[in-house]
Design brief:
2 domains; mainly alpha; elongated; 51% helix
Length: 234
C-alpha cells in the first residue's frame, strides 16, 4: 500500500506489479552494461554503470541491442535469449523513456521492424510439461506421510496445497498468496477461495474460486481443507 504522502512517481510505479518493475530494472542494467561495452560473460560493478544513461537513446541503438541479443548463442549452439525476453527489453526501455518524458523507442519503425523480424526468424516451439493426471495425483497424495508425528502436519498441508492447485487450477503465485481468511467452507458446495489479486487482475478487484467436493476423499480438495483446519485448531 502506498504511504499517505506518496508522490506521483510512487503512484505511477504502483501501476505495475513489483515483479514487473524488478524485471524492467534488471533489463535496464543489462542495457547499461551493453552500452558500456561489457560482454555477456564479463562482470560489471555498480559504480561502472552509474554514468551510463538508458534514456533517452537513439532508436537505432536500441535496434542494435535487439540484434545482438537475438544473435547471442549458448555453448551448445542454442539461442541465449528467447524473442519474449528480447521483447521485454523493449518494454523496459520504453518504460524508462516514458517515465522520464521521452518518446519510447519501441514506437519507432526501426525498433518495431527489428523486433518483428526477430519474432519471425528466432521463434522456437514452446516445450510444455505434460499435465498431471488424476491417477498420478492420487499416487502422489498417497505417498505423502500424514501419520508420522513429526512430519504429519506438513504432509497434511502439502496434500491440501496439491489438491487446491489441481482442482482450482491456481497459478503458483495465487496459491502461495492465499491465507486462512481467504477460505470459507460452504456445506454442500465446497471451499470458496477468494483470490485477491492475480496476473489477470492487477487492479485487485478479486474473484472467487469454488473448489467443489469430490466423491473420493483422497482427491477431494474440501476434504483436505477440513483435515488441515482441524489439525490447525488442535
Amino acid at each position: 500500500m502506498a504511504p499517505a504522502d506518496a508522490s506521483p512517481r510512487v503512484f505511477a510505479e504502483a501501476s505495475l506489479s513489483p515483479n514487473t518493475i524488478r524485471a524492467y530494472r534488471s533489463d535496464l542494467r543489462q542495457f547499461a552494461r551493453w552500452r558500456a561495452g561489457f560482454l555477456e560473460h564479463e562482470i560489471s560493478e555498480p559504480h561502472e554503470l552509474e554514468q551510463i544513461s538508458t534514456a533517452p537513446v537513439d532508436p537505432a541503438e536500441v535496434a542494435a541491442l535487439l540484434a545482438d541479443k537475438a544473435n547471442a548463442v549458448l555453448p551448445d549452439g542454442g539461442q541465449r535469449y528467447a524473442p519474449s525476453t528480447i521483447s521485454r527489453y523493449v518494454a523496459a526501455i520504453d518504460w524508462e523513456h516514458a517515465r522520464r518524458g521521452h518518446t519510447p523507442p519501441g514506437a519507432t519503425p526501426i525498433v518495431r521492424d527489428v523486433l518483428k523480424g526477430i519474432r519471425r526468424t528466432r521463434s522456437v516451439p514452446v516445450r510444455r510439461a505434460k499435465p498431471m493426471t488424476l491417477k498420478a495425483l492420487q499416487t502422489t497424495l498417497l505417498k505423502i506421510d500424514v501419520a508420522d508425528l513429526q512430519t504429519g502436519a506438513l504432509g497434511t498441508r502439502d496434500q491440501a496445497l496439491l489438491l487446491f492447485r489441481f482442482v482450482g487450477a491456481f497459478r503458483e503465485s495465487k496459491l502461495t498468496a492465499l491465507t486462512v481468511a481467504d477460505l470459507r467452507l460452504v456445506d454442500g458446495e465446497g471451499v470458496y477461495a477468494r483470490v485477491r489479486k492475480s496476473k489477470t487482475d492487477q487492479d485487485g478487484a478479486g474473484r472467487i474460486n469454488v473448489l467443489q467436493q469430490g466423491a473420493n476423499p483422497v482427491t477431494c480438495a474440501p476434504c483436505a481443507y477440513v483435515r488441515l483446519s482441524r489439525l490447525m485448531a488442535a
